[in-house]
Amino acid sequence: MTEQKRKLPQVSNIQNLGRLGIFNVQSLDIKFNNGQERKYYRLHAAHDAVTVIAVDQDHLLLIEEYSAGTLNYELGFVRGGIDDNEQLLVAAARELGEEVGYKAQLLTHLTSFYNSTGYQTAQMHVVVATGLTPLAQMLEGDEPEPLTIVRWPLAELDTLIAQGLFRDSRNLVALYAFRDYYNSGKLQPALTNSVEL
């Protein structure tokens, strides 16, 4: 059966209402094909972000980082924004160096997704980093305090999902995608596609 393409609603009057950190709050008027009209609001980010799943031999390198949303230290993957005119894999390599002090011999773009299609415009890109070696010195990042590195066994991926402080939906989506990739046997620490900073 051929899927018929739906006609998109009409979008007009996109206005910037103000800036909150990395987001511009925008309003937009939408007229649907049945004549209904609504005002929507969204967070417009100038840049996408990257999540890096760092695989160090038979472990994942996770970080503990303070989160203002939960007012607690949360466990997750290396993550950060993509800078102006920065390529995806270069951003992944930079964040890996800033947050855990490693460089990768292979960076593989695994998948991309939206944090919330209802009100955010930026995408999150998931990258797997393998062939890790420590840097002589960590790259300087924008973290307010040093991050705690947690080594998690690859053999215990399913227990990570149930871990009480691994609860950010972006980390969960990345973990599910990585688990499928890992179980498929495609993960290999090849020595190509290195990104130099």
Automatic annotation (TrEMBL):
GO terms in the biological process aspect are:
nucleoside phosphate metabolic process; ribose phosphate metabolic process
Signal sequence segment: none
The keyword Coiled coil is assigned to this record: no
Which UniProt keywords are present, listed alphabetically?
Hydrolase
Gene Ontology cellular component annotations, sorted alphabetically: cytosol
Cofactor(s), names only, from the UniProt record = Mg(2+)
Alphabetically, the GO molecular function entries are: ADP-sugar diphosphatase activity
Q: Which InterPro entries match?
A: NUDIX_hydrolase-like_dom_sf, NUDIX_hydrolase_CS, NUDIX_hydrolase_dom
Has the keyword Nucleotide-binding been applied to this entry?
no
By its UniProt entry, which Gene3D superfamilies does this protein fall under? Nucleoside Triphosphate Pyrophosphohydrolase (3.90.79.10)
What's the source species for this entry?
Psittacicella melopsittaci
Report domain Nudix hydrolase positions. 45-179
Q: Give the protein name, as stated in the record.
A: ADP compounds hydrolase NudE
